[in-house]
Amino acid sequence: MILDAYVKKNALEKAVAHCKKNAQNGFEAIGLLLGDVFSWEGKQYVLVEEAITARNVASSVHVRFDREAFGDLAKKIVEKRGKIIVSWYHSHPSMGCFLSGTDVATQKNY
C-alpha cells in the first residue's frame, strides 16, 4: 500500500544533518522515521514527526546500525510516546538519489 507522506520540518532537518555529517567523511548514513498513520476524509496518510538514529557502521557504499545501537533506538522510540516507526532514511553520498536493490528489498520486507 502506498500512502501520501508528510514530513515535519524538524524531522527532515535532523535526517539531512545526519546524512551531511556522515557524508563529510564519505560515509553513508541510516536512521528511522517516527510518526503515525492518520486518516482524513477517508484517505490514509503518514505523518513523519521525528528522525532518530544510533551508532552507524558505515563506508562509502554500505551502512548498518551497530549491534548495540538497537537498545539506543528502542529507548528513543519509547521516549517518543505514541510514535511508531513509519519509515527509514539512508544516504548515498556523492551518488545522487536512488534506491539500490538492497534498499528496495529492505523496503519490501519491512
Instruction: Please tally the β strands and state the result.
Output: 6
Oligomer: single chain
Helix content: 25-40%
Mean pLDDT: 92
Strand content: 25-35%
Biggest beta-sheet profile: 4 strands, mixed
User: Quick one: overall form?
Assistant: globular
Spatially, the strands of the biggest sheet line up as: 1-3-2-6
Alpha-carbon distance between the termini?
A: 12 Å
Q: Using only CA atoms, what is the Rg?
A: 14 Å
Residue ranges: pLDDT <50 for 5 or more in a row? none
Individual helix count: 3
- Return the structural class: alpha+beta
Order of helices and strands: EHEEEEHEH
Describe the model.
The structure is a single chain. By secondary structure, the chain is α+β, with helices and mostly antiparallel strands. Helices cover 32% and strands 35% of the residues. The chain has helices at residues 9-23, 69-79, 101-109, and strands at residues 4-7, 30-40, 43-52, 56-58, 63-65, 84-90. The strands form two sheets. Strands 1-3-2-6 form a four-stranded mixed β-sheet. A two-stranded antiparallel ribbon has the order 4-5. The longest helix is centred in the N-terminal third of the chain and has 15 residues, at 9-23. The radius of gyration is 14 Å and the shape is globular. The chain starts with a strand and ends with a helix.
